[in-house]
Amino acid sequence: MSRYLLDKFLYTVDRDPELVERYREDPRGTVAWWEAERANALLNCHPAEASTWLRLTDAEREALGTHDYPRLFELGAHPFLTLTLFIAMFERDHEEPLAFQREYARKLSHFTLPYPDIAT
Amino acid sequence: MATVVAVIASTHHPFYYRASTATGEDRPPFADEWVRKIHAFRETLTRAKPDVLVMVGSDHFHQLWLDNMPQFLVGKAPFYDANWYNEEREFGLPRMLLRGQEDLSAHLLREGLDAGFDLAFSNELRIDHSVTCPIITLRPEADLPIVPIYTNIFAPPLPRPGRFVALGRAIREIVESWPSQLRVAIIGTGHLSLELGGPRQFGPHGPDPEFDRRAVEWIATGDLDGCLSEVTLDSLHGPGNATHGFMDFMLMMGVAGAGAKADYVDTLDLFHTMEAYFTWYPNGAPA
Asked: Which InterPro entries match (chain B) (predicted)?
């Protein structure tokens, strides 16, 4: 389990306008590129000081690669990060205000308390 | 010594800026009432004639990240740029620049450390909507210097509620021991019941109106004992998965003091969440 890395993907994509669009258009390709090139970047350090050990699990890679946000919730991705990024990618496809946010809630409606653990 | 002229606790709703500035068909039906309430709330700060604002909020994974996460952090910088690309994108928030009050930052850090709070600090902090929302609602001129204080209500493990209250008490004492003649308002924002990224989000009301009712009562009456006896890190999952932001309200109850009844209380039941606004005047209401 690499919940931290799942969150790191969502965090680093959400804050970068180009990556938001790239992930929307090509989720599998973006996840593969990110895991190869960015997953081990230590964010406040010189690129040469990268980490060496971070890797997504198959389940995490698949959930990210298929935009499967109910599965990300189940895997314990931080719900705020997932929500913010997915609003950025898909709110535009809905005409009514908040329609995407409500659909998102509906798709998670099978979850009851306690929700999956999000501690990293 | 400095005077605490107002203590203010508020929700921070990132949609207020867009709702209040929208016109025509884009203006939501609740905007006029919301603006009226905000203007009345703003007056409670204006009347206190503050010189400096201590602003308590929580970074929403903007600058502070899981590789190096502080529990409590005090900004100490001459300026703070504010708002982030994803807040412009989602909420239409404007970029802002606020002045800092470094002497008070230094005083809070030194005295806070000596009082047993291992405060982190930042000399280059870009602040987010947890601080800029109350600037927009309470002091839209953005003309007063600030001291931002960030709390971790977001990335577990979190400090327990009692720690937030204790820090609030300490902030009050430390500000009142600042050798300055300036008038300080201490402003903090958090949430009542709130769900983000979960099945109970974006409903017609907040996810737990009963929690909201009781929370408003605790805050308005200064019932710290009642609040602390019922609110735990575990219990806060019940009203909504982002309800740990209520601990910033508890911090502000610590600032106001046990048993301190708020001089001003107002609420607004909106979709998704309840808004709540509180002001205390520790040295009596201004004329």
From this structure: Xdiol_dOase_suB
